[in-house]
Amino acid sequence: MSDTTDTGPVLAADGTPLKRSLARALRMQKLRALMLIAPLLLFVLLTFILPIVDMLFRSVENQIVSDTLPKTVAELQEWDANSGELPSEAVFAALAADMKIAVEEKTHTRLGSRLNYEKTGLSSLFRKSGRKVKRWDLAEDAPFKEKFIDIDKDWGDIEVWRTLQTYSPKLTNGYFLNSVDMQKGVDGPEARPENQQIYMTLFGRTLFMSLVITTSCILLGYPVAWILANLPSRTANLLMILVLLPFWTSLLVRTSAWKVMLQQQGVINDVLVWLGLVGDDARLVMINNQFGTIVAMTHILLPFMILPMYSVMQTIAPTYLRAAKSLGATNWTAFWRVYFPQSVPGIGAGSILVFILAIGYYITPEIVGGTKGVFISNRIAYHISSSLNWGLAAALGTILLAVVLILYWAYDKIVGIDNVKLR
Amino acid sequence: MALTPVTPQTPGFTAAASAAVGAFFGLFIGTAQGSGLLGILIGAGLLAVLAFVFKTIVKQEKPARLAMLLGFGAVGFALGGVPGLVVGALLGWFFGWYIFFVGESRYRQTLAPYLTPGQVLWHYTFRVICGAIFVFLITPILVVLPLSFNAEDFFTFTPEMLQFKAEGYSLKHYRDFLTSSDWQNSLKNSVLIAPMATILSVSFGTLAAIGLSSEHVPFRRAIMAILISPMIVPLIISAAGMYFFYSRIGLQGTYLGVVLAHAALGIPFVIITVTATLVGFDRSLTRAAANMGADPVTTFFKVQMPLILPGVISGGLFAFITSFDEVVVVLFVGSAGQKTLPWQMFTGLREQISPTILAVATILVVISIMLLTTVEMLRRRSERLRGMSPQ
Fewest beta carbons within 10 Å, which of A103, A204, A293, B166? Predict the structure, then answer.
């Protein structure tokens, strides 16, 4: 037994120092865990995260102008929009050359509709000019300035050229400005005319209605969660079914149920008329407005409020309330000073969840919201499928996503994602 | 269950408490018949007299309650036919129960002896409020079920339905659903898409959940955040992103595209349920298996899988229902060839609104009830296995 073996490193069975051996085992364990996670992570990244990142890029992407009219964009760099003069003949010649190619590839109409989002009339201008330019000969028909203005006097309008110049860079913040009711002006961003301002109202309404829905969910969910947490477990489990059944029922089933109930010839109005509370000729309008959206969405999101509240309230011992009362607290004080503060985490978790779900809702507002009760999501869907202004849809979506992600982050900080429970 | 010894209430108190309830119901029946005030007076008077009689003259509970049920039923039938009979009988049963509930002080029995009258009153008021909220939660579903048997193309109860006449009811909307090619196609698409998406999300999700629940995972929080995000990101944004991206790579409007999209949406549910099950999983079992010479694959299938199977199945059911009910993403990522049941319902609700939707809704509710029952049974079983629940 020499001293060296006593003070030397402890060895594992295979002769390596134990410390290193343990570190290797830990590394292997980490690697194994990561290998198990990797396929799913890759799957989610490819099918879900990548599309969303792609959408984020689309909200600033603006390659179409410089791709379709490369020479014109280069020539237009020189032009000073504030000079009050039309661009030089060189720009017009470049435009003629670009248009000729664009017409052959039939891309000029797409450019026209892109620029039409920024200035109305440009779509028809490009289509009209395309037809004429097709017949021109680039070598012989110069100069082009007069000819373009002959086709349409809009080519002599400085505003048209200014728009073209403003939107010639490959990246633009135009869509984002548009989605906060602003536009690119001569000297940077400026507010849109009042009659074109719709998005701030829409964002405001989305936030306001989500808040109302969250509040009504708290008001309706709190008593239910309380009674579920305080009843004997057999009864509570039975009543829980009443909460879980709507949770499991198809969203469309519930939305159609509300449509059926709230209609003017619907069940609620019929009952009110039968009871004589409302005249037959004065049936209440409860659908296709904000009221309909709020009622239906409160009903749909209520289980998401009740379940987290319930799981928090289950952990609050009923003895605290009794102790408070036996020490002389009134009913209200005992509830407000003892019980309520302990249930706040549940309210927080439920509220953030409901709010996150509410601001992104699409189906229910679309069906029962009419025009006054729609959310920002409905506008996004409109821009994707009807107006085809995908850039604007992406910009609106990005803003909405940012709000949701901030809330998601808050939820993670407050509740922890690991604690999300589906009961 | 009797916590508090009680003595029966005086006839006067019983009569007053009954009068209050009678006035409440009288108000509604009165307004329906034309005069609210008269209804209140008649209701309050009638109930007060009945309560007084039951307390002082007829003291046997069973005959008294039966008489209430029959008497109110008969009056209801005379006033409003078959629906009147049902409403009347229900009211009669309730009033009979209520009079004895109050008169015999049964309401006090189950509560702690030290409560003040005010607290007792609040206790019951609170229960009534909660009851109303439960009704709010469940009514829309209860309304859809009977309406789907409507013989007319209306979305409300017809007089025939309220009189319980056979001709008011029919299965024609169900027949519509079964014969219309639109609905059948969409049903077929749903049945083709949802199981595939479920298989994808369950197989990837279970593996990842096992990885996530081991002790040392680097970046656990960040990975978790990414994997849960499909549940949090608004569907319209997921739909928009997938639409743009999938059209770029040629997946938009294909079966594969929809399946991939739905699988991504179902993953959070699988992760959440399976990691929750794994919390109670005893890790030494896998070590024991390895010790006895089982390779990791055998260990997984013979030891770990059977124990976490309830969680995996409920995760799968969640993923299935997510895909089966999903409409926003399929609306954008799919094309007419992938029209699913919810999509067909959505178009139906927006455009040509037909009661066939209610028949479909009823079928979906029945499916949800079956899934819910399965999930609840699995949850209780796994809680019992882990000794978390005494039942």
Answer: B166
What three-state secondary structure class fits A66?
A: helix
Give chain B positions within 8 Å (CB) of A418: 224, 275
Contact B204 A417 (CB under 8 A): no
Tokens of A131: 């037809």
Q: What is the CATH number of domain B180-353?
A: 1.10.3720.10
Residue pairs between chains A and B whose CB atoms are closer than 8 Å? 283
Nearest CB among A34, A253, A400 relative to B211 is that of A34
Write down the ipTM of this complex: 0.86
Positive or negative, the CA dihedral B69, B71, B75, B81 is positive
Which residues does chain B have within 8 Å of residue A235's beta carbon, measured at their own beta carbons?
A: none
Which range has the worst mean pLDDT, A60-64, A142-146, B47-51? A142-146
Nearest CA-CA partner of A148 in A162, A160, A165: A160
Q: How far is B30 from chain A (nearest CA, A)?
A: 8
Give the mean model confidence (pLDDT) for residues A174-203.
81
pLDDT of residue A161: 81
Residues of B in Cβ contact (< 8 Å) with A250? 321, 324-325, 342, 361, 364-365, 368
DSSP secondary structure of A236-301: HHHHHHHHHHHHHS-HHHHHHHHHHHHSTTSHHHHHHHHHTSS-GGG----SSSHHHHHHHHHHHH
Distance of alpha carbon B306 from alpha carbon B300, whole angstroms? 9
**CB nearest B144 (choices: A30, A227, A257):** A257
The answer to whether A386 touches A233, Cβ cutoff 8 Å, is no
DSSP helix/strand/coil, A188: strand
Beta bridge partners of A84: none
Overall pTM > 0.90: no
**Residue A24: other Cβ atoms inside 10 A:** 12
By mean pLDDT, which of A89-103, A178-192, B39-53 is the weakest?
A178-192
Task: In chain B, list all ranges with CATH 1.10.3720.10.
Answer: 180-353
Q: What are A259-273's pLDDT values in tens digits?
A: 888 888 888 888 888
- Decide if A401 and B237 are in contact by the 8 Å CB cutoff: yes
Q: Which residue of A has its CA nearest to B207?
A: A36
Which positions of chain B have pLDDT values less than 70?
1, 352-353, 385-391
Contact (CB<8Å) A40/B227: yes
Q: Among A59, A138, A44, which residue's Cα sits nearest to residue A92?
A: A138
pLDDT at residue A423, rounded to an integer = 53
**Chain A environment of B119 (Cβ under 8 Å):** 331
CB contact under 8 A, B346 and A252: yes
Q: Report the residue of chain A nearest B112, measured CA to CA.
A: A322
User: What residue in A sits closest to B367 (Cα-Cα)?
Assistant: A249
pLDDT tens digits, B130-166? 999 999 999 888 888 888 888 887 777 777 777 777 7
**Cα–Cα distance, A116 to B359 (Å, whole number):** 46
Contact A360 B130 (CB under 8 A): no
**Integer Cα distance of B348 and B360 in angstroms:** 11
In this complex, do A359 and B212 lie within 8 Å of one another by their Cβ atoms? Answer: no
Residues of A in contact with B34 (CB under 8 A): 276
**Residue B391: its pLDDT value, please?**
34
> How close A241 gets to chain B, by Cα (Å)?
9
The DSSP code for A69 is: S
Please, is B366 exposed, middle or buried when counting C-beta atoms within 10 Å of its C-beta (0-12, 13-18, 19+)? exposed
Is the Cβ pair B328, A363 closer than 8 Å?
yes
List chain A domain ranges.
64-172, 199-419
